[in-house]
Write a structure and sequence with these properties.
Strand content: 15-25%
Oligomer: single chain
Structural class: alpha/beta
Bound molecules: uridine-5'-diphosphate-4-deoxy-4-fluoro-alpha-D-galactose
Keywords: Carbohydrate metabolism, Galactose metabolism, Isomerase, NAD
EC number: 5.1.3.2
Order of helices and strands: EHEEHEHHEHEEHEEEHEEHEEHH
Family: Belongs to the NAD(P)-dependent epimerase/dehydratase family.
Radius of gyration: 19 Å
Helix content: 25-40%
Pfam families: Epimerase
GO molecular function: UDP-glucose 4-epimerase activity
Strand order of the largest sheet: 3-2-1-4-5-6-11
Number of strands: 14
Length: 328
């Protein structure tokens, strides 16, 4: 039985593919390679195409005995989603509906879905629990929340069981040093800080120093990408054993401010890393920290790479050896 990984050439998807292969799973990858990288896919049977295209989906499901799907195929930039909401609703919602229709046609009953902390919007409580209000403040979060709702009804009608994982800030790179983060353009904090350490940028711009936090900068919950992949694996095992549909947060439960992350990166890299203060970035909540108690209790998930030093160290190892990402 094979697992289909949609978006398997992206940052998180490629780490998932690596984890499944290490586990001895048969893996099929679908990616349109708009953002993903061919070199990031360390194995499996690879199809180039889009989840919005039923022809390629039918081909994949008819040529492989797929029993489960892990879906990472999405646009995921909060800022861009505000400017281009229809792009996000089309790719993230219509694309997943397409995928679910084909799963229904082929009787495939398990899906692990990549959701986001952005489904919560501006949190009322920290740490955020799964039952807290979900009031997204951008189309990206709205698109993921819409899919969570669609999944609920597909479970009731067709018996498709799902696990939706609401990630906080994915970071770090595989400890094998072969795969890591390579977004173009790069917008995420840790990669940009490390590009400064490498001398590829002059300074990191800190977006806002006037938040109601201990040092005035935003606080986030950084989770290692391999720990994320491990959580998907556990969720998949549970669904295959007949588990019901669930939603889980995925974070480390510990928040670090932008300034703290920069300071740790200075220690890890030994580089001065120049920082400049700028205006707030639109739509950034002050604090996002997860309660991951539910997934720890119910799936026995234990984050292995949970110190911020380790997360930055693995990312640094990737960037040092691949200063131009997958172009090297
Ligand atoms: N930041 C800076 N300077 C930069 C880049 C980021 O100060 O150059 C700050 C941001 O303002 C934010 C923090 O660093 O406070 C983290 O920013 P990222 O862009 O790395 O990550 P986000 O928290 O914005 O986004 C992440 C995921 C999204 C997801 C979101 C959930 O990348 O996909 O968490 O809230 F939707």
């Amino acid at each position: 039985m094979a697992v289909l990984v949609c978006g398997g050439a992206g940052y998180i998807g490629s780490h998932m593919v690596a984890a499944l292969i290490e586990k001895g799973e048969e893996v099929v990858v679908l990616d349109n390679f708009q953002k993903g990288h061919k070199k990031a896919v360390l194995g499996g049977r690879v199809y180039e195409g889009d989840i919005r295209d039923k022809v390629i989906l039918n081909k994949i499901f008819s040529e492989n005995s797929i029993d489960s799907v892990i879906d990472f195929a999405a646009d995921s930039l909060v800022g861009e989603s505000v400017l281009e909401p229809l792009k996000y609703f089309n790719n993230n919602i219509s694309g997943t509906i397409n995928l679910l229709e084909v799963m229904k046609d082929y009787g495939v009953k398990h899906i692990v879905f990549s959701s986001t902390a952005a489904t919560y919007g501006e949190p009322k409580n920290i740490p955020i629990k799964e039952e807290d209000d979900t009031i997204p403040t951008n189309p990206y979060g709205e698109s993921k929340l819409a899919v969570e709702k669609i999944l609920k009804w597909c479970d009731k009608a067709y018996g498709i069981k799902y696990t939706a994982l609401r990630y906080f800030n994915a970071a770090g790179a595989h400890i094998n040093g072969k795969i890591g983060e390579d977004h173009r353009p790069e917008t995420h904090l840790i990669p940009i800080i490390l590009q400064v350490a490498l001398g590829k940028r002059e300074a990191i711009t800190i977006f806002g120093e006037d938040y109601p936090t201990k040092d005035g900068t935003c606080i986030r919950d950084y989770i290692h990408v391999m720990d994320l992949a491990k959580a998907h694996s556990l969720a998949l095992d549970r669904l295959r054993k007949g588990g019901d549909s669930r939603i889980y947060n995925l974070g480390n439960g510990q928040g670090f401010s932008v300034k703290e992350v920069i300071e740790v990166a200075r220690k890890v890299t030994g580089e001065p890393i120049k920082a400049e203060i700028a205006e707030r970035r639109k739509g950034d909540p002050a604090v996002l920290v997860a309660s991951s108690k539910k997934i720890i209790d119910e799936l026995g998930w234990i984050p292995e790479f949970n110190s911020i030093e380790t997360i930055i160290n693995t990312a640094w190892n990737w960037y040092k050896n691949h200063p131009d990402g997958y172009n090297d």
